[in-house]
Specification:
The complex is a heterodimer. By secondary structure, chain A is an all-beta fold. Chain A is built from no helices and eleven strands. Chain B is globular and about 40 Å long. Classes of the chains: A mainly beta, B mainly beta.
Chain lengths: 115, 113
């Protein structure tokens, strides 16, 4: 069973609107959580990374939240733009001796922004 | 910097053939990662290196897959013999210890017929 579950699987939003993507995980012991944006035909690009002690982090119009108690994270996109159309992947790292740990990937949420 | 460079961008081969994918990490980065992405399984970490040494290869699917990093600026992922189920996009990424951000290449789309 995948230890990182993302929802919804896909969504369509109108340009200028806000949206929120969800990530639930069971990875333990938790080290950090990353959100990546992947444009079609490109490699993923890091948006945010949060450790256990952080509960929110922003990158421009992207704001990620983390509740380590409930093992939930969300990615909020404000005032969406056509360029936000992409797949958003949640990646959770378990604690390990090496700084990168063991990475668990979500299946991604496909976001389509329409004019 | 040109970023992580992968070659080729596309590879079409026949079942049973050997396939070699190449990666040049960002200069100065000491970590290198190989990933595979499919619609069914999403993004999977295959193997990663630190200072040219393989640290974790538990994601390598089977003995047909091998990866090497002969120096800090070059890595290869080899599949021998290739099978249709190996068809996927293979990504290489690099990072600098302590920065915790991975930079991905554009990927190699592999099709095994």
């Amino acid at each position: 069973k995948n230890q990182v579950e993302q929802s919804p699987q896909s969504l369509i939003i109108l340009e200028g609107k806000n949206c929120t993507l969800q990530c639930n995980y069971t990875v333990s012991p938790f080290s950090n959580l990353r959100w990546y944006k992947q444009d079609t035909g490109r490699g993923p690009v890091s948006l945010t990374i949060m450790t256990f002690s952080e509960n929110t982090k922003s990158n421009g119009r992207y704001t990620a939240t983390l509740d380590a108690d409930t093992k939930q994270s969300s990615l909020h996109i404000t005032a969406s733009q056509l360029s936000d159309s992409a797949s958003y992947i949640c990646v959770v790292s378990a604690v390990a001796t090496d700084s990168w740990g063991k990475l668990q990937f979500g299946a991604g949420t496909q976001v389509v922004v329409t004019p | 910097d040109a970023g992580v460079i992968q070659s080729p961008r596309h590879e079409v081969t026949e079942m049973g053939q050997e396939v070699t994918l190449r990666c040049k990490p960002i200069s100065g980065h000491d970590y290198l990662f190989w990933y595979r992405q499919t619609m069914m399984r999403g993004l999977e970490l295959l193997i990663y290196f630190n200072n040219n040494v393989p640290i974790d290869d538990s994601g390598m699917p089977e003995d047909r897959f091998s990866a090497k990093m002969p120096n800090a600026s070059f890595s290869t992922l080899k599949i021998q013999p290739s099978e249709p189920r190996d068809s996927a996009v293979y990504f290489c990424a690099s990072s600098l210890r302590g920065r915790n951000i991975q930079y991905f290449g554009a990927g190699t789309r592999l099709s095994v017929l």
